[in-house]
Amino acid sequence: MATPLLITPDGKKIELSPETYKQIQKILREQKNRAQRLARIDSLHGKYAAKTSLTQALLKERREELAREEAKLKRRKG
Are 32 and 8 members of one domain? Predict the structure, then answer.
């Protein structure tokens, strides 16, 4: 196997040990995976912003349900 080289922006060539090369590859893979995860999150951010908040809709539904339950209890108590 040829000696792995790191080429700097200035064009310098630095020889790397196989262990160091593997570590650098691992770091680059992790950065790529992280970037992909962040891109997925960013793509969904605000996707439903123009629509009704689902949380607010659920809270409203729960308030209405509680009101119905209270009215039902009042009717039973007379």
Answer: yes
